[in-house]
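Predict the 3D structure for this chain.
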Amino acid sequence: MANIKSAKKRILVNDKKNAINRARKSEIKTYIKKFEASVEENNIEEAKELLVLLQKKLSRASAKSTMHSNAASRKISRLTKRLNTMA
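Done. Predicted structure below.
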């Protein structure tokens, strides 16, 4: 356990950021599952709405350094490709 005041503060800050990042990643995974389900059901309109929302969430995650920007771009690209092949 840290003894220095600044080290104790870093631990608290890291815990908060970790919780935020975990929540953000979990939310993205949930929306991806919803997107995949709507694609499986051939519900194109719902899939398009979810894709727009996912692009926003993934871009936000990469901007906040929750995930690497290339990883976010790759996910967006694959989801868009999945929707386009369906339509």
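The CA atoms of residues 35 and 47 lie 5 Å apart.
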